[in-house]
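Subject: Interface between my chains keeps coming out wrong

I've been trying for a while to get a sensible model of this assembly. When I model each chain on its own everything looks fine, but I need the whole thing in one frame so I can look at the contacts. Pasting all components below, labels as-is. Any help appreciated, I'm running out of ideas.
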Amino acid sequence: MKKIIIANWKMNPASAKEAENILNGIKKTAVKLKKTQAVICPPFIYFENSRKIIGETANLFLGAQNSFWQNEGAFTGETSPEMIKNSGGSYVILGHSERRALGETDEMVARKTSFCLKMGLKTVVCVGEKVRDEQGDYLVFLRDELRASLNKIQKKFLKNLIIAYEPIWAIGKKDADAMPPSDIHGTAIYIKKILSEIYGRENASSAPILYGGSAGKENAGEIIKNGGVDGLLVGHQSLNPEIFSEMLISAENI
Ligand code: PEP
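Reply #2:
Try treating it as a single job with all components included. I did that and got this:
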């Protein structure tokens, strides 16, 4: 399986020109990738231009940061999976903690997840605890969040499911503040166990697990190598094309 490194630009950058410069910088490295897939998730407003820049680059893909659970209708401000696909997107991030903090519920994430998978998008569902307590309550939280966010998926669409484990307490900090790879490894195994409980071992074992939370050039290689994950979801550091390119190279060299 190729490693998957996803850039979540969030509500950045401020102008189309800056977006273009960042993507052009990343593309210089992405054209050389063989064992790694880079996925750029810009704000929708930069989608069309990003699609043109990506062109036919083999291992560089376009993704959305959110989607609605229907394809058309009176849903002001929403964007549908069909629109994402028609605009060149093949990935979508759902249930990011920043969206959940704005009021998105597990039920909404579940509806979006099931519909985006049905529409054939590679669907990245984010889960992660707010705090890692000594008693292990975070494990119960993670299990419940996974079950509730995935409860509407039909087994036949599971092949495009990707889980991004993002401990909220580790998001948006420095490389040294990321979760230690050994802890990531333990949690990735736990997530696989929960997926197997829901869907059966054969069906769930192929879902890639990504880590997100202060991943940067200092820790990218180690997290992938020793963290037992298939790639990374990268926030603020993906806006720096040099740093993000170094992360792609680290993944490629594993
Ligand atoms: C994120 O918010 O998805 C994320 C991983 O952010 P950061 O890399 O900035 O911690």
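Reply #3:
Confirming on my end. The longest helix spans residues 181-199.
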